[in-house]
Design brief:
- By secondary structure, this protein is of the alpha+beta class.
- It has a domain of about 120 residues: 2-Layer Sandwich (Alpha-Beta Plaits).
- It has eight helices and five strands.
- It has a five-stranded mixed sheet with strand order 2-3-1-4-5, with helices on both faces.
- Helix 1 runs antiparallel to helix 2 and helix 6 packs across helix 7.
- The longest helix has 19 residues.
């Protein structure tokens, strides 16, 4: 069975106090509740995994934006696409190609200035995804909390008027934030991922 596995790590998690760690757990409880994926968090220090059948990049960006909005935290994420050979109730006990790709690549990017990597067993596809991930890294590194908030709600399928109502600003301000965050580029990369 082919699956998509997200493995992530909270950047500078050792600096979090007890209250921040509790808020982080609440954030993951919320993310898990709105997801079609299966979450397992704090499996290695402050790491997490999410098992999905599809749309792992979409899920990864939801996690990334939500943690920035709520806790001003950055996260490193590795997505592995491949087979699963053993599926346990607890994701961290599962095994297979998707898990290996995801875990190994997270270890590789931990000490690099990369925040996202996508891996398959196809070297050509990996080269393509290296470019897309670099673009997302660049765009998200420059995003403000306000831009991340708008992106989060776009990822939830909300339109500009709904977002304006939720975050209590005018629709023209929402439109400005969308344009300045280069959402049109992110959206194209998300659409490409769905066709992998």
């Amino acid at each position: 069975m082919r699956v998509q596995v997200i493995t992530g790590d909270i950047v500078k998690s050792s600096n979090l106090d007890v209250e921040s760690r509790l808020k982080l757990r609440e954030a993951f409880d919320f993310l898990s509740s709105i997801s079609e994926g299966k979450y397992d968090y704090f499996i290695r220090g402050d790491s997490f995994q999410v098992l999905l059948n599809e749309d792992a990049l979409h899920e990864a960006l939801i996690i990334k934006t939500y943690l920035q909005i709520k806790l001003s935290l950055k996260v490193k994420i590795s997505i592995g696409l491949g087979e699963v050979t053993f599926l346990s109730k607890k994701i961290s006990d599962s095994d297979g190609e998707a898990f290996w790709l995801s875990g190994r690549n997270l270890d590789e990017i931990k000490n690099k200035n990369e925040f996202l990597r996508i891996s398959t067993n196809d070297k050509q596809k990996n080269k393509e995804w290296e470019i897309y991930c670099s673009m997302i890294d660049y765009l998200f590194e420059k995003q403000t909390a306000n831009q991340s908030e708008v992106i989060f709600w776009l990822l939830q399928g909300k339109n500009q008027q709904e977002i304006a109502s939720i975050i209590k600003i005018g629709q023209p301000s929402v439109s400005t934030r969308i344009k300045s965050s280069a959402w049109h580029i992110v959206e194209k990369i998300l659409n490409r991922f769905q066709n992998v």
